[in-house]
Structure formats: C-alpha cells, structure tokens
C-alpha cells in the first residue's frame, strides 16, 4: 500500500477558487462560499443550513433526511494543509494493507493524491472487490458510490465515506417512494402481462447514480443498472425484455443514449414526479419507448452550446468533448461525448499539441491539464464551479476517518441493509453480465502498491 502521495498538480481547484473569490467576488451562478471550511455546514455547526451548499449543486434542494456529518475534532479543523497531508500519510503508513483508498475522478487533488485507485464510480466499485483481505475501503466520493462498494465488497469489509453529507443531488432527485408511485401508475395504464413475444410492458433501468434502494427496486422488478460507459448496451438488453423502458434519475443520459440508438424524441416523454401520469397523457405514455425521469446533474447542465461556439471561435481546431449527462443540444454540438473514463482515454491517446475543451467536472479537467502539458486542455465553462457534494470530502475528513481506523474505530460506515442489498446486487449482476466490463480504475502508480 502507498505511504507517500503522488505529487500535487498545480494549480489545484482550491487555489483557483481562492483566486476567483479574491478577484471576482460575485461569480455568476456559483458561490465563493466553497472557499469556506466545509465544517461550517456540518451538523451542530452554528448557523449550518440543510442544503447542498455552494458549488454547482447550490440551487438544488437537499432532501430532509440527508445524513449530516458530525463536527470534526478541533485539532483537525485547526490543522493547516501541510499538517493534514502529514497526518493522512502517517495514518496510511500505520494501517498498511488493512485499508484501500478509492478516489473518484471528481475529487479534489489534495485527496486524490492519496488514492490507491482513481476512477469513475463503477471502476472504483470493481476496485473494491480486488482487495478481499482489506478490512476497510475508504471511498473518497459520494454516498451512492460507497453504497455500491458495500454491495460488491465482502460482508466483513467496512466501507467508509469520509463526509456523510457527500451525497449527489442527481441521485436524490429520484427517491424510492416517488418511483414506486410512478411504477404503480404505469402498471395501471399498461397492465402487467407480457406481450406475445414475451416482452414486459415496461422495464426499469436505473443509472449507477442512484440510491441502493432504487437499485433494489429495479432488481426486484426485472430491471437493471447502467453506467455512462454501458448505457446503450443496457438499453438494448432492456428493449429485448420490454416494450418500453423507465429510465431514472438522469433524463439527459437517457435521452442522449436513446437518441443515438434511433429512438425518436417524441417517443421519449419526461416523467415529472408528483404529477398525474408524470405530466403526460395516456396516449403519450402508450407511444413511449423510453420514459425519462425528470432528473439532472447540476454540474453537467451548466454547459451550453454558446460555450462550445466560443471555444471554437477562440481555439480553431479544438476538440469539444462532453459528458453524456450534459443536455442534448450540448452533446449534439460537441465533437464527441463519453464517460469520464472515455474522456481520460481520449486525452491520453491524442497526439501531442491537441487542444481539448472539456464539459465535465472541473477537478478532472484541471487534473488532465496538469498531467498533459503536451496538450492545451480547458473547461468549457469558464467559471470555476465544482460539484459541491464531492467537494465536501476535505483532507481533514480523510485524516479523521483514517485516524479513527488506526484507533480501532470505524467512523462513517456505509451499509446497505440485507434484503435491499440482495435485490440491488441482482440488478448490478445483470449489468455485469450484459456488457463487457469497462476498463478498470486507473491505479495511481505509486511505487509500493
Ligand atoms: S457531478 Fe453530478 S452526478 Fe456527479 S456527484 Fe456531483 S451532482 Fe452527482
């Protein structure tokens, strides 16, 4: 296991945020509050509010039941960056192979530099299965990712999320009660009988970015999980088994994927939760091939066609590459779209001197720019605005959970309850069987792994 972190590429997003706050105090659409310590938002902190906080998710409503992080010990809140980095390294050295540290592409560099694996949510979940002897996985990402790691790792292994408030606003846009209500209405409309080709009236498909409760919901009803890497293969699987698909929570991934497969837009109604028939007519739903839940990612919906046109005007020959969670007009206007892993691989494979304008979370874009000085790489959105929930995993929380493990205590353990876990695993196993496994997470190349 690594005990010395990889070098920190500069400038980090935090440094850029500090600079932006100092020079442009009123950044449009993104609050400079991210430069404040994240423990100001934790439970019991004076004045803390129930919300996702500043960042790209600041306008989204946090669910009432969102877990709150307990207040960090004072010595960690007072520690400067160097001390925190030293404490993380010391704790990792003490824990050795007992702990595996997983870091999502969108995490800040000050955290990712300590990771054994860096990748997207699915890659990291698979990485978690590669260390059956480790006692704990520390998952530097968001809540649904830690749940998936718990589903796929051994029952004795603890999955730890450094900050309990690190959720995902998109995942929270589809709660199990609202989806169950939608399902009931669809069953009342379509019935439950298969047609003469054995196809069900509707097959539920959930994006990986959803709670374990929803993965269990689809697993129990003949459905499946997808990722941004395998969404078209998963939709094909679903169309073989059903006349329609109910796709949640991300309307954009569903729409972009189905459109590329030839499904006409008029056969993709959007389901607005809380409204009768999701705001559609019975006829629209009868004609539907894909019913799209009204969810979105606050980070990826910030990208616009205007930004693409500006990038092309200012950088002739630029390759515009966006994530499929971006709205359809943005994906249509881009040169290519793909998962975070596909974006990383495209940059790695490009000839030196290439120019990329990338539409995905700023931490990944900044890191790619630092790792590939042979290219010109910049974010399509000129405003520094990271995913606020990802950004909650500050090095102080990482130091805290690691030091707790050294002391024999497991803080912030994420577990999926038994029956729910069984059904959720069914949906995940279907996904693993249907599509070739995506490339593994990028091991960080530290010398002593
Ligand atoms: S980037 Fe978007 S989808 Fe990813 S965790 Fe943040 S809000 Fe969720």
From TrEMBL:
Alphabetical UniProt keywords: 4Fe-4S, Cytoplasm, Iron, Iron-sulfur, Metal-binding, Pyridine nucleotide biosynthesis, Transferase
Localization per Swiss-Prot or TrEMBL: Cytoplasm
Cofactor binding note: Binds 1 [4Fe-4S] cluster per subunit.
Pathway: Cofactor biosynthesis; NAD(+) biosynthesis; quinolinate from iminoaspartate: step 1/1
Primary location class: cytoplasm
Record's compositionally biased regions (Pro residues): 1-10
SUPFAM superfamilies assigned to the protein according to its UniProt record, in alphabetical order: NadA-like
GO CC terms in record: cytosol
Pfam families in the cross-refs: NadA (PF02445)
Compositional bias of kind Polar residues: 23-35
Entry keyword Metal-binding: yes
Enzyme class, spelled out: transferase
Signal sequence residues: none
Cofactor(s), by name: [4Fe-4S] cluster
GO molecular function (one): metal ion binding
One of the GO biological process terms: 'de novo' NAD+ biosynthetic process from L-aspartate
Sequence segments annotated as region (Disordered): 1-66
HAMAP family in the cross-refs: NadA_type3
Name of the featured protein: Quinolinate synthase
Organism field: Micrococcus cohnii
């Amino acid at each position: 296991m690594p005990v010395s972190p990889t070098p920190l590429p500069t400038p980090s997003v935090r440094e850029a945020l500090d600079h932006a706050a100092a020079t442009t105090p009123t950044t449009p659409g993104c609050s400079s509050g991210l430069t404040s310590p994240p423990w100001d938002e934790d439970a019991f902190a004076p004045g803390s509010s129930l919300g996702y906080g500043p960042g790209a998710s600041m306008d989204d409503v946090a669910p009432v039941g969102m877990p709150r992080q307990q207040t960090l010990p004072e010595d960690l809140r007072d520690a400067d960056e160097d001390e925190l980095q030293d404490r993380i390294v010391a704790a990792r050295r003490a824990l050795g192979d007992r702990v595996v540290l997983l870091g999502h592409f969108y995490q800040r560099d000050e955290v990712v530099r300590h990771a054994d694996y860096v990748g997207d949510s699915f890659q990291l979940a698979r990485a978690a299965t590669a260390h059956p002897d480790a006692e704990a996985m520390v998952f530097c990402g968001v809540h649904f990712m830690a749940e998936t790691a718990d589903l796929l790792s051994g029952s004795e292994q603890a999955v730890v999320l450094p900050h309990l408030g690190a959720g995902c606003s998109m995942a929270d846009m589809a709660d199990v009660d609202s989806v169950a209500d939608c399902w009931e209405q669809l069953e009342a409309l379509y019935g439950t009988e298969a047609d003469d080709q054995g196809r069900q009236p509707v097959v539920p498909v959930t994006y990986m970015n959803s709670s374990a409760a929803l993965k269990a919901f689809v697993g129990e009803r003949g459905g499946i999980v997808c990722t941004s890497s395998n969404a078209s293969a998963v939709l094909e699987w679903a169309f073989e088994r059903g006349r329609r698909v109910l796709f949640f929570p991300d309307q954009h991934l569903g729409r972009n994927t189905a459109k590329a497969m030839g499904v006409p837009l008029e056969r993709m109604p959007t389901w607005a939760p809380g409204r009768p028939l999701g705001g559609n007519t019975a006829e629209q739903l009868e004609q539907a091939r894909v019913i799209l839940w009204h969810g979105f990612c606050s980070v990826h919906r910030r990208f616009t066609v205007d930004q693409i046109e500006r990038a092309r005007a200012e950088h002739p020959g630029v390759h515009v590459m966006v994530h499929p969670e971006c709205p359809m007009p943005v994906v249509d206007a881009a040169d290519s779209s793909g998962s975070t892993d596909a974006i990383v691989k495209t940059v790695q494979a490009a000839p030196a001197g290439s120019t990329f304008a990338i539409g995905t979370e700023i931490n990944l874009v900044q890191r790619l720019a630092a790792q590939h000085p042979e290219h010109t790489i910049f974010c399509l959105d000129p405003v520094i605005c990271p995913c606020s929930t990802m950004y909650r995993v500050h090095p102080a929380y990482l130091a805290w959970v690691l030091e707790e493990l050294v002391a024999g205590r497991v803080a912030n353990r994420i577990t999926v309850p038994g029956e729910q876990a069984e059904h959720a695993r069914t949906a995940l196993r279907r996904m693993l069987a249907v599509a070739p496994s995506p490339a593994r997470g990028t091991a960080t190349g530290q010398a002593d792994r």
